[in-house]
Amino acid sequence: MTKTRQPAVAGAFYPKTESEIKKMLTGFFKNVNSDEKFSKLKASLKLKKIHGIIVPHAGCIYSGGVGA
Hints:
By secondary structure, the chain is mainly alpha-helical. It is built from 3 helices and no strands. The chain has helices spanning about 20-35, 35-45, 60-65.
């Protein structure tokens, strides 16, 4: 039998509903793609292979933009 854990902090550290979460995440990624400074930095990198990524871990409203 598979057990599904119900969200413990929905509405506190992240939005309460799936549609709100999708809207928030879409906004984070849209902002990344429209950030001119980030686009220039990305273009200047000469990466051949990514070995790892370090992102902050906090509530989405605090670190979601950086994570995106």
